[in-house]
Amino acid sequence: MILYMPFINSHLKMILLIVLCTISSASFAKNCDTLSVNGADGWYPYFSRQNPEHLGIMGDVVSKAAHRAGLNLELRPSIPWKRILLNLRNGDLDVIAGALKTQQRAKQFDFSTAVHFAELRVFVRNDRAFQFKQLSDLIGKIGGKVRGMSLGQEADNYSFNNLVLDDVPSPKSLFKMVASKRLEYGIFYGSTGRQELERDNLSAILDILPVAVATEDLFMAYSKRSQCQRQITLLNNEIQKMKDDGSIDLIIQYYQAAIASQDTEGKK
Amino acid sequence: MIKHLAVYLLLILIGMQVASADGLFYGKSEEVGDTSSSTSSKHDEELFLTPLSISIVTAKQIQLSGITTIAEAMKLVPGVIVREQTNGQFGVHIRGLEAIVTGSALSNINNSKTLIMIDNRIVFDYFTGGIFWDTLPISVEDVERIEVVRGAVSSLYGANAVTGVIHIFTKRAGNDSHIKTSLTVGSKNSEIVHASAEKQFEALSVRLSAMSEKRDRYENSYFSFADREYQKIDDITLTASDEAYSHPEKAVDKQSMSLVINNDPFEYLNYDVTLYHQESDVQKVHINSSDIPFTYNLSNAYGLNLKLNYGNLNSRFSHHLGKQETLGLPDFTYDTRISQASADYQFKFPKWLIQPGVDLYSITYDGDFIGGERTIQETNYMLRTEYNPRRNWRFISAFSYSDFNAPDDDYLNYQFLTTYQMSFETSLRASVQVASSSPFMVGQYIDIEFTFPNDPSQRIDVKGDKEARLSRMTTYEVGLRHQIDFNNFIELEAFRNEMDDFTSFNIQDPIVVGGQTIVERSLTDLPQIAIQNGVTVNWIYESSHWNVNTFFSWQNTEILDQAENLNQGSETRDEHHKATPKYYGGLNMNWKIRRDLNFNVLSNYLDEHSFELQQPQGTKDIPSAMYTNLTLSYQYSAKVEGFFAIKNLSDQKESQHFYTDRLEPILFIGVDVKFGSD
Q1: How confident is the model at residue A262 (pLDDT cuts 50, 70, 90)?
Q2: Looking at CB atoms within 10 Å, which of A25, A125, B278, B370 has the fewest?
Q3: How far, in Å, are A195, A244, A253, B231 from residue A250 at the CA level?
Q4: How near does any CA of chain A get to the CA of B25, in Å?
């Protein structure tokens, strides 16, 4: 529009254009004092928004590490998981607090070392519980898992060749199908599943078998396109220090105690 | 046509341009990719990996596009042709293939090759074969989702799933008890009222729903076949009695009610029972009329549908009692009694799924046109297997053996399918399927001597044939689904349909008996073969504020050995089939202006085509046309929402379904109010 203003001479136009370009590019420059973070909703105890003081194990680790590194954190609003991944890929988000590492994701994101792990456990009706020590104990039974969920490459291969494992659309339907005997067992994250059972009033009907089917390492995922790479490195270094000095273990113990306390309450 | 295509492409480009401004969203995987389908494989599976050409229309899509009837919702589906006969009355065809027999009756434009189901209950009509959309005992407000399968799938659902299946899933009561009322009013005296009440009692949920719909036609006149122009009814000489058209302005007057009780405890056994009642009073293209396209039809029905599941055993029973009356043609008044029972079981093994099943149908019609009570009995024995040699590779075969009481011949329908997931983003599929029609009352059993009331010297005798062949179709398909990037998803399907074993009421030479000229028309097997090759492209763009879905089909249909006319011994020729448009498609665009405000554009394009029917109905050339609906919907609160829609915007004022009403713009405004907990 400036170019079509005859009352402004050409030098002034050039200066105005330079100023405008500078202003507009400056408006896109990011303030790296604050890193943006998000995580999968309803993934207690790994990430949770129920209590702003306690964001789950992975959320608390990021929060404490940022504090120790002198960085601010901006917790982004709850959005679908795949949009969180897109934001991280595009550099619109700096950190995901809690993600599984896959070959495909490793190409697009940077990852911390493993911070914690999630156990996949077997959920059964308490009147149809069975001994479970290894995957072969599931042969001959009809089970289920949430669609798209991986048990890890080895367990995925074993289950494909030897087990009947239906895909169901959601954890809610998985537990309902086990409760109504349409599945003999369901495989899901142990701690998160426990929360789901509480919410759906299924704790009195379903049990979680003690041995884990598989264990998945949990990582912090970092954006490769973030403009705040130096701050991300600072954050990651601090997380590594927290791992080494036992600070992460303290956070984990806090949540384990909270879960144990809930279990005791539930049994009462 | 070029002008319409240019406008269509422009709309797509605008959509792409606007949509490209927002790169926030992951796209289909959130809105559609996570969606499950159960019609394609008779069990729940991810839509992305389904082995057949399938589309799903959700209640949300219906609401945002201001759609007011279930048939109209088919405008959202790729590969489907929707023609409006008059306000609220539609003809729906999957991939066309309408009026294959040139020179046949007007009723042959109606679709008799697609199976319609509501919650697994077949709602097909066996009079001449087809769907009476006006007799469905539900409203669009009761729809949870509609799954549309394109292709010959009788191996899964028995006879009549020849060009595909339209499977309507209705709503069940949710966790919150509430009452919801919807009021929609519009021009042409359109009034649609719907109310539903939902309540959950632990494992038992109850939903009661009722609706009333009234609409006037776009025209008060009718097209006279004799005079070749639209005229007032009083100016048209009718062979039927004048009483048949005593309310020429009326299009639809229907009421329906349904009660759904669903019991899903934490036990093996769960059940779902639906009771329904429906009454309707409509004008539509139905029984062949020698004067004007419309007949006036009254119907009422009662019925129940019971689904029982015990573990992996799924069973269903339904019973339907109904009455159909065509004013002015008392011979074609009939009572119906339809019983259906089906069961299937899933045997699951590592890498294997084996699914045997059986369907029993007893379809009884009682009317003068068939000389009293006649029954079609059908038994289908089904066996479906899935084998996964690798995690990303699946082979499927299904066989259905259909045994009818008549004709004596039994029919084997089958499908061989394979799906291959090349990568996380890409899946391929290929299929060969064979499907057949069932016998129909008019085709198999009609036996009528019709003397023209206004000219007793003329008589037509129409004779059916119990042993006439049943139409069959073979579908070959390859398909691709690909997630291009976080925002864009594309589906491609290339298909070839081969349909044969057509029949028609051929005209014998007139004879004179006792001063009366008698023309006999008897059902005759025809040599025609219809061969259709086509491609459908479906592109979906999704972002946080924009959702653009555009779909387009190209297809070419050729008829081999087409009879020159329906006279006995007519010569045959090969010809291009003109009644199915060569190009057709649609654009559905949602702009989420604010969290509570949405603007929708739904455009549908049909290329020029032509219907060539028997005399005196003659020929109708339909010019290419694009019709656009614009809908603004607003959510005032969690309990109150509304919409305003203007429909049928076009540069054409033409009829779509032969010489039915010429479409014109129509306005609708609607409000939904919810009472009770949320």
Answers
A1: confident
A2: A25
A3: 21, 12, 5, 87
A4: 6
pTM as predicted: 0.88
Q: Which amino acid is at A196?
A: E
Q: Report the Cα–Cα distance between both ends of chain A, in Å, rounded.
A: 73
CA–CA dist B345, B579 (Å, integer): 42
pLDDT tens digit sequence for B32-69: 455 678 888 888 888 888 999 999 999 999 999 999 99
d(CA A71, CA B32): 39
CA distance A238 to chain B (A): 30
Both tokens assigned to A233 = 């490195």
How many CB atoms are closer than 10 A to CB B313? 13
CA dist list (Å): B97 to B132, B158, B164, B559, B584: 18, 20, 12, 10, 13
From B382, B555, B408, select the one nearest B475 (Cα to Cα): B555
Interface touch A180/B268, C-beta < 8 Å: yes
Quickly count: other Cβ atoms within 10 Å of residue B648's Cβ.
17
Please indicate whether, in this complex, the C-beta atoms of A181 and B264 are within 8 angstroms of each other. no
Packed helices A190-199 and A247-267: angle between N→C axes, nearest 10 degrees: 40
Residue B72's nearest CA partner among B92, B93, B45 is B92
What 3-state DSSP class applies to B61?
A: helix
Whether the CB of A90 is below 8 Å from some CB of chain B: the reply is yes
Considering only CA atoms, which of B297, B304, B296 is closest in space to residue B260? B304
Place of tokens 């129509």: B666
**A25 has pLDDT over 60:** no
Give tens-digit pLDDT for B71-118. 999 999 999 999 999 999 999 999 988 888 877 788 888 899 999 999
Q: First vs last Cα of chain B: how many Å apart?
A: 49
CA distance B504 to B512: 23
Strand B164-170's sheet: what is its strand order? B53-58, B143-150, B164-170, B114-118, B121-122
d(CA A5, CA B400): 76
Closest chain A residue to B309, measured at CA: A182
At B94, list the tokens. 């999957």
The CA-based angle B396-B401-B406, given to 5 degrees, is: 155
Is the bond preceding B407 in cis, omega lying within 30 degrees of 0? Answer: yes
The SS3 of residue B430 is strand
Q: Looking at this protein, which amino acid is placed at residue B135?
A: T
Residues 6+ apart with CB under 8 A from B542: B25, B26, B27, B28, B30, B31, B487, B489, B548
Sequence-ordered strand ranges (E) for B327-392? 334-345, 347-349, 352-367, 372-390
Looking only at Cα atoms, what is the longest distance across chain B?
A: 81
Tell if the CB–CB gap between A169 and B34 is shorter than 8 Å: yes
Burial class (CB in 10 A: 0-12, 13-18, 19+), B390: exposed
Dihedral class, residue B546 (left if φ above 0, else alpha if ψ from -120 to 50, else beta): beta
Which position has the token pair 């954050």? A235
Query: How many residues does this entry show for chain B?
Result: 678
Predicted confidence (pLDDT) per residue in A191-225, tens digit: 889 888 988 889 999 999 999 998 888 999 999 99
Among candidates B612, B601, B472, which has minimal Cα distance to B106?
B612
Q: How many CB pairs under 8 A join A and B?
A: 59
User: In this structure, what DSSP letter does residue A15 have?
Assistant: H
Q: Cα–Cα distance between B639 and B635 in angstroms, integer?
A: 8
Nearest neighbour of A180 by CB, restricted to B266, B349, B351: B266
Q: In B430-467, which positions are buried (b, 16+ CB within 10 angstroms) versus exposed (e)?
A: ebbbbbbbbbbbbbbbbebebeeeeeeeebbbbebbee
